[in-house]
Amino acid sequence: FVTSTFGWPSTIPPTVSSIPQRFDERYYALRTGLQNWVASPGTEIADDLMVFRMGAKQRWQTKRGPPHKRRIIDWITLDTNISIFPEPRRDNYGQTFGLLDYDFNWHVGDRLTLVSDGIFDFFNQGQQIVTLGGFLNRPPRGSLYAGLRILEGPIHGKILSLSYSYWMSPKWVSTFGTTLDLGKQGNLGQNFSITRVGESFLISAGFNVDRSRDSVGVALAIEPRFLPKSRLGRIGGAQIPPSGAFGLE
C-alpha cells in the first residue's frame, strides 16, 4: 500500500522504484525515536528495534563582569550523543554505531558567539551534516548571523546562510535572511519582514521567496505587547520591551 504521512508517497515494503530504505524518512524516524513521542504525528511508526542512546553534556564556565560584580557564565558548551545498535544488520544497515551528533557553543564575549553542530551516520552514503557559524548581538539594537552548512551523503551541498535583525527606530524593526548554495543551485531563497512597534500592538508584515520550490509567500501578524512571552516581542536579537517599560509612549 502507499503512505504519504510525511508528504512523500512510497510503498511498503520499499521496492526498487521507491526510495531506498536507508533514506526513507519513516525508517529514519524509527531509528531516531519518533515513536516515543506521545503527540507524534506518525502513529504508524512501529517496528522491532533495539538501541542504546548515550550522551554527555559539558560546560566550561568562567567569570565575567566588573571586578566588584563578577558573574559566572557558560564560556563553552558541548553536548554530544551517539546511538549503539546491538543488532546492526536489522536496525542500522550493518553499522553498530550511528546517529552521532554534537552541539557546540563558544561564547567568546557578551556579544559574539561561535556555534557548530552536526550529525553523522556511518553506513554507506549515510548523512554527514556539519554547520559552522557565528552570532553577533548588540542588544537591544539587533543581531547578525552568518553560517555555512556542509552536507554529504545522498545529497551534497554547501549552503551559506546570512541573516540580520535591526531596530531601525523606536517604532520600526526589520529582519532579513538569505540562503545561497555555493554549488550549482545558486540562490535558494530570501525572507524579509518589517514590524511596526505600536503602543499596544506589534504589527508585522513580510514575504519569503523559495527558489528551490518555486514558491512565494506573504505573512501578516498582529500581536498585543502586554503578553509576557511573545513571538514578535523578540525578533532575532532585537528585544522589544512591553508597553510602558520606558514611560508614556
Descriptive overview:
This protein has helices at 25-32, 88-91; strands at residues 2-3, 10-11, 52-64, 71-84, 97-107, 112-120, 128-138, 142-152, 157-169, 172-181, 186-197, 201-210, 215-224, 234-235, 238-239. Among the domains are: 1-47, no CATH class; 127-249. The model has no long low-confidence stretch (mean pLDDT 84). By secondary structure, the chain is mainly beta. The chain is globular, with a radius of gyration of 22 Å. The N and C termini lie far apart (62 Å). The chain has 2 helices and 15 strands. The strands form 3 sheets. It has an 11-stranded antiparallel β-sheet with strand order 3-4-5-6-7-8-9-10-11-12-13, with no helix packed on it. It has a two-stranded antiparallel ribbon with strand order 1-2. Strand 10 (172-181) and strand 11 (186-197) form a beta hairpin.
Highlighted features:
249 residues, mainly beta, 11-stranded antiparallel β-sheet, two-stranded antiparallel sheet, 2 helices
Question: Topology, please?
Answer:
Layout: E1 2-3, E2 10-11, H1 25-32, E3 52-64, E4 71-84, H2 88-91, E5 97-107, E6 112-120, E7 128-138, E8 142-152, E9 157-169, E10 172-181, E11 186-197, E12 201-210, E13 215-224, E14 234-235, E15 238-239
Antiparallel strand pairs: 1-2, 3-4, 4-5, 5-6, 6-7, 7-8, 8-9, 9-10, 10-11, 11-12, 12-13, 14-15
